[in-house]
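JOB MANIFEST
job_type = single_chain_structure
chain_count = 1
residues = 283
[input]
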Amino acid sequence: MVERSPYLTLLSHLILVLGVLIVGFPLYLAFVASTHTAQDIVQAPMPLLPGSNFWQTYRDTLLGGGSGPGSSAPVARMMWVSLVTALVITFGKIAISLLSAFAIVYFRFPFKGICFWLIFITLMLPVEVRIGPTYQVVSDLGMLNTYAGLTIPLIASATATFLFRQFFLTVPDELVEAARVDGAGPMRFFKDILVPLSRTSIAALFVIQFIYGWNQYLWPLLVTTSEEMYPVVIGIKRMIAGGDAGNEWNIVMATALLAMLPPALVVIFMQRWFVKGLVDTEK
């Protein structure tokens, strides 16, 4: 039996509060900076209380009203590009991984084991390793500055295939036999039984892959040269140009806060499913 000590409880809460303050203080500074003008921010010391320029800053940020030396593209458009890219990558990875894991586990074909290990070995070939030839292929196909160029090279996932394969291996053989006796074909068994059983794993992977797709930086940096196709992460980088005094830091900070909202909301609203998908096994 573990006895609760009031001193240990107090200490644990103090540590948690300290951690929240350490993580939250930079976010608070970014919010404060987004409510002031660019001239107020570069003054020493910087104001630590919110200002009166909140609505003007966020209007200029979303609609593209900046006048600094960097990019002044509308952040609303950047967030739309990031959202489409993240969702296509997420649903594409999940769909391809489900089908590939289903084929590897439930179908018999020559060199099935070799095919699985070839998929698994691609974990050692991330985008950074194959970025040169991948860029050449995308460029030759005319997919620069397109959603296809942003998403297709990132859409396959050996990790998700491996996770779904391991889950499918735990499905009882009796369930497969019952479906066969009832006259269910392979795709009906996949759609009506395997996919519902995998919903918690799908939810957990959705959170992981959405954040992965939203935070992509290196690949969009190469394949986007038009402001209309900048994801928001690239947009933040393009806004910073010249010296510190020349940048509109209020707009940069507002963009950074807006860029954090969608991943944060996905984690908050899908937290229960995310945890359940990591620790539970439903059969």
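[summary]
The radius of gyration is 24 Å.
The mean pLDDT is 85.
exit_status = 0
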